[in-house]
Design a protein that fits this description.
Low-confidence stretches: 4-9, 26-63
Structural class: mainly beta
Oligomer: single chain
Distance between the termini: 75 Å
Number of strands: 17
Helix content: under 10%
Length: about 240
């Protein structure tokens, strides 16, 4: 039998001295990668002496479980660990519980009395506004149900203001409405806001007589009038 092969079971094998030599080469390659920091564990020393960063793999999701990275192939924390707390969205939605008179040809602040939800303490009931507590890019929406006197060449307007200045505006003719129900009007925008910015909803109409902002609710709560602010993302 040759010293270089082992034919037992019909297979060819390297003799023990050569197998040990090959294994030693593979171990050396692994040590090179570890020393280079390619697959070094978190906190291991690199050639420069500084600890290596936590390894990032294709499975890292960015979520943590008690401070440790979570992976897609795990799906949940290991037994005995608590998942990281969910991120709570920032936003508010406020509405009114009584009708409001909108005088003719006068920009009028729409008044709100109650918050359907308010996750960031935004609603200022005294001023009927939403005050930004967390800077970011926001979706703002306003809605009002009009009851007015149909008048030729008259307009009805709805605007969202930031610190008193209009940042979104919608105007429509006041020449028709659904009998006994009124006409709904909406305005919306996406805008970057800073901490302390004050958001309001304002209405104006030019029929020559008073109009009314009508309160209305549905199966899931108030529908009009309504002012909403939802933070979509951090400021760019």
């Amino acid at each position: 039998m040759s010293r270089d092969t082992n034919t037992r079971s019909g297979r060819r094998h390297l003799p023990l001295p050569r197998r040990a030599k090959a294994l030693g080469a593979m171990t050396a390659v692994s040590l090179v990668f570890l020393t280079a920091g390619v697959i070094a564990p978190a906190g291991a020393a690199t050639p420069s002496g500084a600890p290596s960063a936590a390894p990032v793999t294709a499975f890292d999701t960015g979520d943590t479980c008690k401070g440790k990275p979570q992976r897609e192939d795990k799906g949940r924390c290991k037994k005995g660990r608590t998942p990281a707390a969910p991120i709570v969205s920032v936003g508010a939605s406020v509405f009114a519980s009584t009708n409001q008179t909108i005088p003719t040809d006068a920009r009028t602040r729409v008044l709100f009395s109650t918050a359907a939800y308010d996750t960031d303490g935004m609603f200022d009931a005294a001023s009927s506004t939403l005050v930004v507590r967390t800077a970011g890019r926001y979706l703002l929406k306003g809605r009002l149900l009009w009851d007015y006197t149909v008048t030729p060449n008259a307009n009805r307007e709805l605007s969202i203001g930031a610190n008193g200045d209009p940042i979104a505006f919608d105007t429509q003719l006041a020449t028709s409405q659904v009998f006994g129900f009124g006409v709904s009007q909406e305005v919306s925008t996406i805008v970057a806001l800073n901490v302390g910015d004050v958001i309001s909803l304002d209405a104006r109409q030019t029929t020559g007589v008073d109009a009314t902002s009508v309160t209305i609710s549905g199966g899931r709560g108030a529908l009009s009038p309504q002012l909403q602010a939802e933070r979509l993302a951090p400021s760019p």
